Predict the 3D structure of the following.
Amino acid sequence: MSAVATVDLDVFRSNLQLLGDIAAPTPVMAMLKADAYGHGMLQLARPAIEAGASWLGVLEISEGLRLRDTGIDAPLFAWLHGSGADFAAAAGRHIDVGISTEDELRAALTAQSAVPLQVHLKIDTGLHRNGATEDEWPGLLDAAIAGERAGALRIRGIWSHLADASVGDDEEALRRFREAIAVAAARRVHPELIHLAASSAGIRMPEARFDMVRFGIAAYGVSPFDDRSAADIGVVPTMTLATTVGEVSGHTARISAGWADGLPARAAHAASVWVRGHRHPLAEIGVDSSVIVEAAGLQTGDPVIVFGSGLRGEPTPTEWAEWADTIGDEILTGIPVRVPRRYVEAGDGRTEQPR
Ligand SMILES: *Cc1c(COP(=O)(O)O)cnc(C)c1O
């Protein structure tokens, strides 16, 4: 058997419920970007809502449209707009959009729609990843106010994103965010939704929660912190990447998963996998297979867990991230489409491809 990624929908739901309890009474947006961090956006949308998420967040309008096409009627938010972004469809199908610049606002307004586009104006609080700087903010606000007067849009939100680099950086960003909100208030702009926090600030900075917390990585069971584990927070990894032992020869064995299945090649020598209740170090990560050392006693066909919940002692996505000197997000989103996703909940199991 080559690699298979099993996504436990019950674990995903309970992670999101726990995060919702932490943020309560603040509502939660479940972030389903990057195909739900590699888990499958279409499959996780409904469980997210069942677990109490009031909103779903995706990168692009086109992803929001796919969710609408599958019958998701929850509020949706999309904030990354390429040149082909269909703002008219966003307005018509009630997908709120993040807007960062006056140019983007103009592009959004050239789209004609019978219903006003719901926009969330983005402030750059120091991350320099879109958003209006302090100098650009009054111009963006005034352009949006004009659009609202003309009936083309509604200013529904003001938002930004934190770098999560350190508490000090986040506090400085929070200060800038508040200043920009004051600039808007001076123009009598008081939107319904002010939102800033993602997983990290949503958990550790109550003052950053405002009207909504956008939870991403923590909902998938990976800690956003360096100094607090997923277990410390109480969340559990939702994805298990498994394969089997192939050929065994002496003290080494091959497992049927390699870098084409998302195992980062640079993690070889640091990484290990879980077979027969023990960790076995990996000496080499090849294209579609990898070499285990200390393989005495293993047999062809033995199940191998590359990473999983960690509850039985198997490696977690976070450990793989440490071994590969990256972040857990990259491990999860790096599991390619060729690896089939299997979704399980309450004892039942079914196999599906995410797209
Ligand atoms: C990815 C992302 C989030 C979620 O961040 P996590 O740290 O994964 O919780 C929230 N908001 C925006 C704009 C994002 O891009």
